[in-house]
Amino acid sequence: MRATAAAYSVAADGAVVQACVMSEYRAAAYGDVWADFLDTWIMMTGSVPAPAMLDLIVELARGGRVLELGVGTGYMAIPLAARGVRIEGLDGSPQMLARLAEKPGGDQVVAHFGNFADVNVDGLFDVIFFASSSLFCLPDQESQVRCFRSSAAHLAPDGVFVVATYINSDRWFRDHRLHFIQAEGDGWRMHWNAINHPELQVTDVERVLESADGERRFPHRERYCSPAEMDLMAQLAGLRLRDRWLDWAKRPFNGEGEAISVYERTAL
Ligand SMILES: C[S@@+](CC[C@H](N)C(=O)[O-])C[C@H]1O[C@@H](n2cnc3c(N)ncnc32)[C@H](O)[C@@H]1O
Fold first, then answer.
1. Is the pLDDT of residue 54 over 80?
2. What's the total number of domains in the chain?
3. pLDDT of 136-159, one tens digit each?
4. In-domain check, residue 257
5. Cβ of 30: how many Cβ atoms within 10 Å?
6. What are 21-42's pLDDT values in tens digits?
7. How many Å separate Cα 104 from the centre of its chain?
8. I need a labelling partner for 161 at 20 to 30 A (CA). Which of 169, 236, 246, 267 fits?
9. Which residue of 75, 130, 137 sits with most ligand 1 atoms within 8 Å of its CB, as the best mutation to test the pocket?
10. C-alpha of 12 from chain center
11. Which domain holds residue 260?
């Protein structure tokens, strides 16, 4: 994959203080920034996968083989394994996979190293899924289409491709910029700063953690797309939309917030 990405350093109040050009896109880029902190962050925010997230994957899997794209440190995969799901995970970050392997229950997840733009794990799956909008880690439309195609090629005849995404809104941005406090606790605060490039459907995000230890910055780039664009990617990949919900608990989709999209094969 070849892509250049502008990386912006953004002050806590959202002002751009520096812009530079990053080298070409690497599948490990997100993990390089987040791997050593992700589990701490999950603990700080008290986040656990909602039972409905796990229930839906269990239901769709019907006892079959499941692959999570962007498995990270196993936030979803480890609890799924604990529920008896035959779960495998693909990730482009060796650091994320190392953390997954060393966690209790991590050895129950079959881990694969690779770029999810070109899924190349052996065999077919009953469910392939993205949690947490990780599809948007891919930097452009072309690589996202490749991801749909290569995922479709790894679906069993009755398999489904599940893509969880947020729905971007221009209303969030003022002068293409966005700043809010994502979370805060005793002695720490996480800022979310973003610059939107609507012509590219790209957002450069920099989260800034302020704490007694000083500031730590977590930059990454997201290439967002609408549910309608994903449906077209699916069509190009020989898939069609089977269901779309607002959340994992299957509340009706309303075009705002999030989408849980479930795709199935159109024909064999
Ligand atoms: C937002 S994190 C989600 C991690 C985990 N699923 C969770 O819910 O905590 C995105 C994950 O995708 C991985 N990732 C990003 N781009 C990737 C790519 N092109 N190929 C494979 N993995 C990638 C990152 O290393 C990271 O583990």
1. yes
2. 1
3. 999 999 999 999 999 999 999 999
4. yes
5. 23
6. 344 799 999 998 999 999 999 9
7. 23
8. 169
9. 137
10. 24
11. 51-167+227-265
Q: Does the residue 138 lie in any domain?
A: yes
Identify the pLDDT of residue 24. Answer: 79
131 lines ligand 1 (CB under 6 A): yes
Answer yes or no: is the C-beta of 202 below 6 A from any ligand 1 atom: no
Q: What is 187-252 written as a DSSP string?
A: TEEEEEEEEEETTTTEEEEEEEEEETTEEEEEEEEEE---HHHHHHHHHHTTEEEEEEESSTT-PB
Q: Which helix (H) or strand (E) holds 264?
A: strand 258-265
In a domain, 27, yes or no: no
206 lines ligand 1 (CB under 6 A): no
Residue with tokens 């962007």: 70
Residue 159 contacts residue 125 (beta carbons within 8 Å): yes
4: in domain: no
pLDDT for the residue numbered 160: 98
CATH of the domain at 143: 3.40.50.150
191-206 pLDDT, tens digit each: 999 999 999 999 999 9
